[in-house]
Amino acid sequence: MLSNFYMMKKLIECVPNFSEGKDMGIIKQITDAIESVEGIKLLDVDTGKATNRTVVTIVGEPEAVVEAAYRAIKKAAELIDMRKHTGEHPRMGATDVCPFIPIANSTMEDCIECAKKLAKRVGDELKIPVYLYESAATKPERKNLANVRAGEYEGIEQKIKLPEWKPDFGPELFNAKSGNTIIGARDFLVAFNANLNTTSVRRANSIAFDIRENGRVDPEGKKDADGNVLRTPGVCKSVKAIGWYIEEYGIAQVSMNLTNINITPVHIAFDACVKSAYERGMRVTGSELVGLIPLQSMLDAGKYFLAKQNRSIGVSEDELIKIAIKSMGLDELNTFDPGEKIIEYKLTGKEKSGKLISMNLKAFANETASESPAPGGGSISAYVGALGISLATMVANLSAAKKGWEEKWKEFSDHAEKGQQLKDALLKLVDEDTYAFNQIMHAFALPKNTDAEKAMRKQAIQDATKYAIEIPFKAMQLSLESMHTIKAMAQIGNPNSVSDAGVGVLCARAAVLGAFLNVKINASGLTDKAFAGNKIKEGENMVSEAEIMEKEILEIVHSKIN
Predict the structure, then answer these.
(1) Against a cut of 0.85, is the pTM above it?
(2) Is 267 labeled as catalytic in the residue annotation?
(3) What is the fold, at CATH topology level, of the domain defined by 190-348?
(4) CATH number 3.40.50.720 given to 4-185
């Protein structure tokens, strides 16, 4: 989902948590220190007055992220006095916790290295005691953040004297002003709170105990053979949770850390809270996301809640996100802006598509009709193909919602979901075909003064030409594939929309034949005749298959209309 620019880089996310959520002047100075580092992108600043805590999310390459985190920790140590700090959230220091997370082309080992570099520098230069946690932990008992933070700031002075709690870096002395800092490496974590219609922390905790993996201790204090108090596990694995009261909103919340959203996604954790609250006479009124969330998590949530309603999940990305927001009440306390809260959108901008697909219909037509050679037939073929499968997807969604066809909704939903995938892939090719053309123009513009330059230019032209063949060839494949969905909708879809399936197949055939023209014209200039010949042969086969399928589908359409 990330742009090519970002995907080429080794990217690491860092999420430092600062023990200040009220004084925006202090927070601004910390974020200014972060942004003073070249190559760093500040993704999110999430402040909480009741927790008196700010969660900052940054991303960049390893060296830049370590430098930005160091400057932020240094500035926080200058401005935040833990002797005066109060807040609902557990905390140990001015910079309480600072994890590194692999995002793109990076590994957990990269993040562990970042954590150790930062921890050493903070300990040596700032004289702040540092513990390493999660994947960077030096001892098993330090993996769990809760264990390291136990006792919080008020307990550090005595805890740091214990041999088993000697800091990993920095002085073995209590730093009264800055406290301790916990630095580590972990997988992506989603901080997610469920809002309750109660002010009772005890009742909020009862829900937290129901859902969190660690569950609750045996009420009678029963122990196992080793003397450990027995626990009843909660229903959600990879979830940590506590209950608290948020004075700012006048409600209690179940505050959760979802440490592996592949095991327990946000929508499952949310529904677990809903079920537990209902059974205890309470109600979940909405939720709150702290920090950022992956796009896929929002799409999965949208599909989950649509499926619970027996509605087609084959709707657009924007619609899935809207359903997820409304179903979980993510906008109850604050506006939920997908462009600000979804990590992929924040990195690359809400519009992940290129220039052409971002245009309105009139602007796109005007751009095509201008004197510029691009967009040309390749882009138009991909777009026509996208329109064709869009019509079939519409038929699938209408059929899934048709009265009396309730038992068939899942079948039509599957067709609609497939249609959305094909549509999105074809839309991407609209801009990519123009990009491919520009690559050829760029190659032809390369210098050719020396033999070496001539050879480099010739190779660049051939590489760009192959790329310019692959794009319309892919459009042919996708458009041909879309005909299977179009045919299914002509056969079994809502009969009132069968003409839409007919128009869809006409678009799909035009896309296949139109894209093939671009394959052939680009292949004519290729010196690799074997590559060109294979593409032409495969393209001719696809054209023949498309014409046969068009005839079959139109026969079905005409028979139903007549």
Answers:
(1) no
(2) no
(3) Alpha-Beta Plaits (3.30.70)
(4) no
